[in-house]
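Support reply, case 0932

Customer input (verbatim):
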Amino acid sequence: MSRIITMNDLEDSDVLFFDYLVKSSRREREVERNLTERIKDLFADNVFPTILATVAGMSLLDKRRIERVILNQFNGVQDEYQQILQEEGMAVAQIGANRTISHLQQAGQSVSFMDVTDRVEGFIRNATFEASQQTMDRMIGDVMGTLSDGVSEGVGIDGMTEMLEGQFNNMEQYELERIAKTETHSYANMSKFEVEKELGVEFHEWLTDIRETTRGQRPYDWADHIEMNGQIVRVDDEFSNGLKYPGDKSGNPEEYISCNCDLVPYLMPEGKMPPVGMAYFYENDLRNVS
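Our regenerated output:
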């Protein structure tokens, strides 16, 4: 069942389904943009300017004082950051659940759209708690590293301010956007995964959004999502890369950061069965039922 639908594949009965997939993808991107703006506002309008103002206002460079300010500023917004992640995570989780249900309906399954709040809220809460801690630890570590580099190089107040400003600009323009993309993608696929389990879906498939930047096309890529495309496993088993779904953050960061891959239910075609003894397989590995 689970293949990427193109305009050449469409029959009249598929048009609404195709339209729904396009619209739901658009809504997921809207959540991602909203999350990006909210966390940029939190850090770029509060944390970063306060640290820079403290450094710029010093008469003598005081590393310990700057370290205290960095810790206080980042740790002071962690609860708000987690709340933002949770709110946007719940929004995109519902979109992900609806996509799975729509796939099943298109395949002829009698399932209804559902409110997934009660089903995924706990998972989202735990995931955002861990994500907020990881993000803070990483960002604090990066800023402390820049501070230590500046002190080692013997820069003055102006030099340190310039170094930190460059660090914060990079965070705002690159890292915060990457965080928003990674988190929304993870919560959407987590919700699809939980809905599949609740509905008793037996198999699901990894679909790769193949583009120039897709990992697996360059010699230095550690992960290979080109190879993952079309891979099928039993729900709750791991794919060959150790993830249970695209965006599963229990795996290696190389596998999930900025991932665009999708998780879709796979319904075994009539007269076919999975190959015996294979933990994961592709559609061309299916065997005829004897």
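We compared this against your earlier run and they match. Two observations from our side: The first strand starts at residue 203 and ends at 207. The longest helix spans residues 157-199. Please reopen the case if you see a mismatch on your end.
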